[in-house]
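Example record for the data management plan.
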Amino acid sequence: MTPGLALARRTRGSLAHPWLMAAGLGGVALVATLWLLSLQLPSASWGTLWHLADASSDDLSLIALRYATLPRLAVALASGAALALAGAIFQHVLRNPLAEPTTLGVSAGASVSLSVISLWFPDLLIHGREWVALVGALVSVGVVMAVSWSRAFSPLSMILGGLLVTLCTGAFTSVLALFFGQSLVSVFIWQSGMLNQNGWAVAQYLVARLAVVAALVALMTNALAVLELGDESARSVGLPLRTIRAGALLIASMLSALVVSAVGVIGFIGLAGPVLARLAGARTLRQRLVWSPVIGACLLWLADEGAQLAGRLFVEIPTGAVTALFGAPLLLLMLPLLKDAALQPAPSSHGASAPRRFHAGWLVPAALALVVLATLAVDFNRGLSGWRLLPWADVQPLLTLRAPRVAAALAAGVMLALAGVVIQRLTANPMASPEVLGISSGASLALIALLFIAPSAGQAVRVLTGAAGALATLLVMFALARKSTFSPERLVLVGIAVATVTGSVVSVLLTSGDPRMPILQAWMAGSTYRVQSADALAACVVAVISAGLLPFAARALEILSLGEQSARAVGVSVSTVRMALLGLCALATAAATLIVGPVSFVGLMAPHMARLLGLRRAVPQALAGALIGAALMVLADWLGRNLLFPNQVPAGLLVAFIGGPYFLILMWKQKS
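Corresponding structural encoding:
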């Protein structure tokens, strides 16, 4: 039974007619539209709406209505219908109720493809933006299918792969924004999902192509319907399954690329439209292919009206940010519908190398190597005259500028690595880390709130606030994942959903025009540029405290990684120990997030590298991970300062750019 059929059967007693759902959503959107119309045009003049073509050219209200308001409405309806239709096809072909252009990384691939071509090969856009976007979308689909191959394209693995592709492309887009921001500013504004229009060209572009693609879908409906019977039944009637699936995926990717090329990334409409259609009673494929686009069109219409209302009352929000804010919670609510085998609880049981005995002697040369690396990061740098290793007398005046950055990067690497080791052992999840599970994003949300409530708060207040946000995220994550016995992939999906909400909040804030936003944007990218001596000292203190406390929890970490029942059997107070360890993780993550932003993947890579060295026990892995994490961050900060001198790449962003593909490769190598 496909997940879609399972959902339909579970909701058989829900709404009986999809048109009721569409009418309800459309009715609310219509009320909002009329209210906005009343603000734009006095009700006494509404009679002229029937004669727009004959309206006076000097009537600005009617001109705005004819060339801005009505085209925007048409674009919202067409985009919503296209995305929902694409989601319905993806969900049916992949038998995955969470599949849609955003969760599969299709929209992100199309978006980054358009950015790259706009920057370096603009002549290719002459032949049509949709083809450029389609190439990026197909590449993303290919990557997702490749990393899901070993798990037979299971629903959870495909969604996880798609969201990781989105994170990787997001990091790449951030790099482009740093160096080519002025050249791509219009592209980035457009890709945020703003539906503002100044004519009918985009609406005509979308409607014409949507009509052609919809006709192709209609021709394939009978062949797609047979897939519901299963592969064996489809083969028995002579259907070429691979050709049908490839053609359907190509059509769905084309629909996604059309929307991205026209209005940018609009997330989660492709998820919500088909889901609501099923809930409303669309049982068969034919019904879902008809009602999903209708409901999706009404959803995006309603979301766009909400964005415009916010613009009237406060500041206009990109419609893409509005859909993401509501789509991420919908993703969490849909997770229980998926039943899938988890990843291996830990690679140690299948490890390629045998565990090695821990010898304290290796700590001394490893620590000395880290000191040498930090010294070189302060001394050996690129300047106007090229690379230079300065004598000590010339380095001293620069210590106040370089030393705090290096020390803060080192401390952040230690804290993220320690938090990563603890989280991986608490959840028995080799793919867990503070960044991947959304813990860093939770700390970021709390710190963003503090920035607006008390912008002059001290370092201690900021660390405690970030720790509170990180701890709250941890508790929510554990509460949501408890029913699935902490399935690794589900935990990661919960974290990515939290990161999506954080990204949406940041997008909304960036459009507000607040003067503090450049500082926020630089911090979110993980820059150490603004680190002062007091910040570096505070980070080092927290790192030392975290490293000093961890050996006392070594026994608990070893036992908890075997499961709660085993821990209770030997007398461990699981709740108390877990809360203490979560508090330690929250404190370390918050302090590190203050330095390098919410996404860096050091907390994922450092524990894995320690494990590859054969260090599987808690304390050896934590110590080795801390040294590796510190070295990674110091090296990233040094490369960020010198690689593209005089431009600087934030250390957190540079590590994230490497860590995202590392995560995908790790997932690809994992066997189900």
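Summary line stored alongside the record: The chain has a mean pLDDT of 79.
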